[in-house]
Fructose-bisphosphate aldolase (Mustela putorius furo), 364 residues
Amino acid sequence: MAYQFPALTSEQKKELSEIAQRIVAHGKGILAADESVGTMGNRLQRIKVENTEENRRQFREILFTVDTSINQSIGGVILFHETLYQKDSQGKLFRNILKEKGIVVGIKLDQGAAPLAGTNKETTIQGLDGLSQRCAQYKRDGADFGKWRAVLRIDNQCPSSLAIQENANALARYASICQQNGLVPIVEPEVIPDGDHDLEHCQYVTEKVLAAVYKALNDHHVYLEGTLLKPNMVTAGHACTKKYTPEQVAMATVTALHRTVPAAVPGICFLSGGMSEEDATLNLNAINLCPLPKPWKLSFSYGRALQASALAAWGGKAANKKATQEAFMKRAVANCQAAQGQYVHTGSSGTASTQSLFTASYTY
Ligand SMILES: O=P(O)(O)OC[C@@]1(O)O[C@H](CO)[C@@H](O)[C@@H]1O
């Protein structure tokens, strides 16, 4: 017997699954350009550029006005609220520039972490109050997908079952509200790489977290075909002394996903989590070559690993526009190849692309 109170009509489901599939079609992935004002400040500080609205706008204008062929590699761009309403120097809204390139526009919907009392400094994510109204407005303003990032840390007694359950439930509530408003929810439960744990421990925790997330999504009647997952890759903690190959990372990652993520999910777009640009690409390539069943598209939704070389090339100077766009295009194309298991490392990457982008206790 079908469920008595269907959450979505067949038209709504069709729209959501078409949006999700467009974003990850043919090796395409997502540019996560949704850094909040504070996070963007940290990025700009690294290149000694002041964190003003105009500087943030200028960098993003350079990214979004890159050659239209970017649409072969990038299927969606996640924006922060401020950026959704910003314009290029000719007065054209960024969101229209992206849409004209055939790129789907997304919006960051979570509103930061709040402490979970009685835990070892664990958090839940805020932003559920008024979320439906915000989603409806963003949909009217051209967004077709949303993003909500939950953070889980591996440490003494962490993640606790309270943190896992609470964050899974908030992600499911968010996903359900998004779908009611025509937005594809990107579900992002990030197990952050802080710590000295090994690969096996990260795999164990990632499996527990993903299993809880998919149970909660099912409880909340979320239509999985109209969602995308944005998980961490399974890696050892940043301070772990043992090093693992991309093939080992790939096997641990795909094993964890295979055990927990239903085949109805159209795409899994990894976050880069402080890996260098080159490592993020090599790991993604190995994941796509991993000899386990992979019923979903395995792609990218990188923030740092798509923008680090571009930011370094820009350095806050308009005269560096061409070099900035070339650096961005290079990473986008490399990741698109990796999302199809076709990336060949040439060994000629610049320094910026091999530098670790890890920041301890990364908050947003
Ligand atoms: O780990 P990365 O790939 O740099 O960024 C992942 C991410 O979820 O975190 C950032 C802050 O919210 C966002 O810009 C981005 O969407």
